[in-house]
Amino acid sequence: MRARDKVAVSALRSTLGALDNAEAAPVDEAELRGVALELSPVGAGATEAERRELSEHAVVEVVRAEAAERLDAADRLTAPAHADRAERLRAEAAVLLGFLDNPGTAG
User: Fold this and answer.
1) pLDDT in tens, 35-75
2) What span, in angstroms and rounded, lies between the C-alpha atoms of 34 and 43?
3) pTM of the prediction?
């Protein structure tokens, strides 16, 4: 596998995870407190919650945030010993921004 593919795979995997988290149903703090065990839902699927569907704008914002996070982290890695890691973070950000600049293309 080429080095660029590894960078793209790493960036895309973590961004897909971020998108998955963004789609999670919000949990009300009151729901987290004080439900008696005997009142808990029981059975297959009883605790399933419908996930949110993100708009195209929301997806773009999550991808931009992931790219910005990588660029910010790369800027903080100033020691020469971290140059390779900073370069990889910038490359991952470039992959993500490339998808935003050229929708429908792979990198």
Assistant:
1) 666 666 666 666 667 788 999 999 999 999 999 999 999 99
2) 20
3) 0.74
